[in-house]
Amino acid sequence: MSSHPTSSRRARGPASPERQLQRQAERRARLIAAAIEVYGENGYRHSGVKQVCEKAGLTQRYFYESFSHSDELLVACYDLITQALLDDIDRAAQAAGSDSTARGKAMLLAYFHALKDQPKAANVFLVDIRGISPTVDQAIERTLKAFAQHVARTVLQPDNLPDEMLQAGVQGGIIHIALHWIANGYTPSVEAVADIALKLSSVLLTDTPAR
Fold this sequence. Notes:
This protein has 211 residues and is mostly helical. The protein has two domains: 16-67, Orthogonal Bundle (Arc Repressor Mutant, subunit A); 70-211, Tetracycline Repressor, domain 2, CATH 1.10.357. The chain has nine helices and no strands. The chain has helices at residues 17-42, 49-56, 60-66, 70-95, 100-117, 119-128, 134-155, 164-183, 190-201. The chain starts with 16 loop residues before the first helix and ends in a 10-residue tail after the last helix.
């Protein structure tokens, strides 16, 4: 009987294409999560690829595996945060029932609570983000348009949606209310600022004919 142990270890070959894609997606997610923290702490303009990679625990070559430049990473962060916010206000609307005014108020409360609860992220992705590059500005406009349309569809009946320009105007007004609120140190209260924004939003809650 042989006294030599039989090794069960085998030489590892290259990972499968599916596993490689999974690992790349995981690294990309780590970079986005790290960037949100770094940008929130330092501001986008004072943050670099090296800082983000160090926060993510990855070398810089993995940054360029997923992103061609920092603006692309910023857009990815912005998209992730706005989608999370959209999910939050959707849940708030669903919990508020079927009344359009109650749904609108619930969505606005969720929106302003999210800004106040994450002030660093709010400052970066609402205040500092504009004017960084045409690519970033286009992403903002695309997201705001989709956001306004989604909110209108959630609050109103599908056959009673207002003109897209009106939706954009109300959404822009809410953004400016939020910017003013942030600049004033989140004063007045969330409840009060939501009521102010609801007054503006009431134009969407009227029986505006479909266009």
